[in-house]
Amino acid sequence: MKKIGFLSFGHWNPSPHSQTRSASDVLHQTIDLAVGAEEIGVDGAYVRVHHFARQLASPFPLLAAMGARTKTIELGTGVIDMRYENPLYMAEDASSADLISNSRLQLGVSRGSPEQVIDGYRYFGHVPREGTDSADMAREHTQILLEVLKGEGFAQPNPRPMFANPPGLLPLEPHAPGLRDRIWWGAGSRATAEWAGEQGMNLMSSTLLTEDTGVPFHQLQAEQIQRFRDAWKAAGHERTPRVSVSRSVFPIVNDMDRAYFGRETRSQDSVGFLDGGNARFGKTYAGEIEDLVQDLKEDEAVDAADTLLLTIPNQLGVDYNLHVLESVVKELAPALGWR
Length: 339
Known about the structure:
TIM Barrel; 10 helices; 18% strand; Flavin-dependent oxidoreductase, luciferase family (Includes alkanesulfonate monooxygenase SsuD and methylene tetrahydromethanopterin reductase); oxidoreductase; Luciferase-like_dom
């Protein structure tokens, strides 16, 4: 059994060919997509977070609205760039959204991807400490977030408060029980996956890795997952961690699918240059159901993960994306033994 979710980058574009021509379109359609996905049996609704771009940027109002309109589907991010975050304010927002959804939040966080602007986090008031870089700052923000989500007191109370305080040091409020165990680290390499395991976070791995050893993408990602689990075990954490991988999967079951994704049936891994080094990108899976079954059975990282996040073309609109998700959940997943 695998949990299957969708991951939306939340693009909008004023082009007449886009079904999402404004930020308002994307926000409302993402809520509708979560509602529809829950109805057809999808397990998770995840959103990407980018700043200074025509994409989703502020996740917690959206996640709260999704939580208010749904009942069972997991709601998450993949991922929040922690270079931009005030971890205490983020903890308050995240806890509120989690309580609204009755503890369904699954928050993916990370150092972030290449930006639209130079050092955009500086505009948000965040500057790395002397002798550190932005990646260090992202990890520091994450560790603070993990600590305050425990719900333990750390702030000295005012001796003359407006309202009476409970005894002892004060924690952030509201507190969302269990949210600390539902934080995922978006790891782009084997080393950062090991760090996530040491910190006691779940692992979220996408369709690219910021390193290349010459082996196929799925094998490199499977090694990353194993290193994460080894680090988790060595750290002595008690609970069982979760692991998600992202894939672009498009079953071709009608002429519209063929028109949109027929050319992707020949997709292969690729190697590019990202953030100053080689990176390996995974292929798109597109084809008839029987062909996809065989291809995905050979994907070692998908086999190793408990959660599969399907990247969706959100600009094609809610109806088409629900069609893609339904094809995966009701036709492909049972054929693979995932349902």
